[in-house]
User: Which sequence fits this backbone?
């Protein structure tokens, strides 16, 4: 199923944008993952590799590459993720042979970067915390109302309240299923943090929500939803923006 999504998305990406979509930036067309490519548990980084904002191989990534990619694709202030990059390097996760670079798959280190209760990955206890899990994601997508897009215009968007409740429910599921669930500080910050991250990255300021079509493409195909209307954010985002959404998520009663 996942392979079919990748192939379909790749063919569509090579075609001209539809009447309601936007063209992909030249040189940053979507390419499906290839055998031998490295990918991470983080859809946001994988998307950047799929579009060539990061090396398409997902390998030998340095700080300047991350800075350039998040700025060019998502309009984040270029140093927004410097501390996250430094953490990955300081944890000595790299398999590249160069202490200042990493491959995307290196980030699957459990309870260092990766954590239990992911929205789209299974827990480390079950054997694969790296790859997209259709089973885990199906539950998350249902709670996000991802496939309900009517009858009102607002039904096309994910709000902070909906995302916060879906995140909390996913963590409860993981805690019930995983006898080794790791409720570490990393997990307790990482879970709401990743929800804040995807909302901030895909937020439509005019609509006051994250378009469901954009979220679907981002998680399921690891693709920027240009053909569904994704546009480069007019207002630059940064760590403060993510932090504000983090606090809003924590404030939602769950």
Assistant:
């Amino acid at each position: 199923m996942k392979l079919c999504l990748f192939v379909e998305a790749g063919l569509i990406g090579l075609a001209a944008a539809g009447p309601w979509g936007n063209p992909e930036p030249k040189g940053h067309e979507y390419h499906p993952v290839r055998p031998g490519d490295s990918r991470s548990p983080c859809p946001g980084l994988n998307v950047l590799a799929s579009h060539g904002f990061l090396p398409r191989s997902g390998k030998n990534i340095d700080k300047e590459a991350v800075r350039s990619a998040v700025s060019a694709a998502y309009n984040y202030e270029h140093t927004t993720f410097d501390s996250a990059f430094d953490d990955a390097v300081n944890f000595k996760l790299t398999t590249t042979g160069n202490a200042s670079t990493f491959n995307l798959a290196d980030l699957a280190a459990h309870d260092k970067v990766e954590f239990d209760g992911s929205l789209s990955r299974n827990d480390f206890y079950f054997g694969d915390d790296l790859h997209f899990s259709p089973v885990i994601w199906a539950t998350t997508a249902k709670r996000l109302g991802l496939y309900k897009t009517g009858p009102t215009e607002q039904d096309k968007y994910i709000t902070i309240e909906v995302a916060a409740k879906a995140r909390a429910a996913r963590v409860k599921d993981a805690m019930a299923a995983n006898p080794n669930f790791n409720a570490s500080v990393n997990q307790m910050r990482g879970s709401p943090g990743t929800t804040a991250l995807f909302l901030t990255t895909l937020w439509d300021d005019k609509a006051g929500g994250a378009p469901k079509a954009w979220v679907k493409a981002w998680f399921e195909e690891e693709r920027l939803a240009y053909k569904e209307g994704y546009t480069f954010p007019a207002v630059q985002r940064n760590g403060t923006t993510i932090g504000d959404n983090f606090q809003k998520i924590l404030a939602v009663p769950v």
Q: What stands out?
A: The first strand starts at residue 157 and ends at 158.
